[in-house]
User: Fold this.
Amino acid sequence: MQGGGINYAPQPGVFVVVSTDSYAQTVRLRGADGKTADVYVNSNIYDLSKLNPGDRVQVNFLEPDGLSNKLAAANIWPVK
Assistant:
């Protein structure tokens, strides 16, 4: 939250990689509840070619800015 506002970004967490699309710069992630979502990952944030289905990753999400309705990662890194 900034300036007393509400942060509408999803909560950070650990997710399982279902698939990646390097062309679209997205990774499909599955949460602990079994739900999946496609997350945009800027190539400056992480190289998606390093991820494989079944990998576990920690993701912090960007707060939506109203210009795009894409779910986007602020940070992403492998969990061992």
